[in-house]
Amino acid sequence: MEAIRDRQWTRSSDGPLLIAPLIEMMQAYFPGMAFDGFPTALVRTLAGDHCADLLELPPADRTRSLISAGTVVGQLLGGGERRDLDSRLIAHATHQLMKAIVQVEREAKQARFGIPVALQQTIDPGG
After folding, report:
1. Which residue has the higher pLDDT, 69 or 13?
2. Nearest to 42 by CA among 76, 120, 29
3. How many structural domains comprise the chain?
4. What average pLDDT does this structure show over 109-125?
5. Cα(20)–Cα(40) distance, integer angstroms
6. pLDDT, position 13
7. Residue 52 and which of 6, 25, 75, 118 are 20 to 30 A apart at CA?
8. Which helix (H) or strand (E) holds 27?
């Protein structure tokens, strides 16, 4: 896997241009300054340092320790393989983050939803 990556992954001038707005957008969803740098640490954790270096992201700061601390807590609470715990914790954290982003974007308004009449006629209430 690493041999393929080493042959096919290379620095691109587009990489930093594409990742910068993503990092900026992610950072905007964290209130205050306590989580400044967290999106960069998250990218470094999920994509790896090699990828983050190709994207010219700065080194992860103290916020990377938050991700590591979450992994340790997961190990203490649930056991299991570290990689599995990392994945579960990151999945949970990103799910919660996405829920918060949706709430902020939608200003806590509920979506109007209705089943179209044509679809209603295809529903079998008995099962």
Report:
1. 13
2. 29
3. 1
4. 80
5. 10
6. 93
7. 75
8. helix 14-28
Rounded mean pLDDT, 110-125:
81
Whether residue 16 is contained in a domain is answered as yes
Amino acid at 25: M
75 band by pLDDT with thresholds 50, 70 and 90: low
**Which structural domain, as residue segments, surrounds residue 9?**
2-106
Structure confidence at residue 83 (pLDDT)? 60
19-26's contacts with Cβ under 8 Å and 24+ in sequence apart are 19/43, 19/55, 19/57, 23/57
Question: Considering the domain boundaries, does residue 122 fall inside one?
Answer: no
Domain-located, residue 96? yes
62/69 Cα distance (integer angstroms): 11
Residue that the structure tokens 């900026």 belong to: 24
Domain membership flag for residue 84:
yes
Task: Measure the CA–CA gap between 76 and 59, rounded to whole angstroms.
Answer: 28
Integer Cα distance of 75 and 117 in angstroms: 50
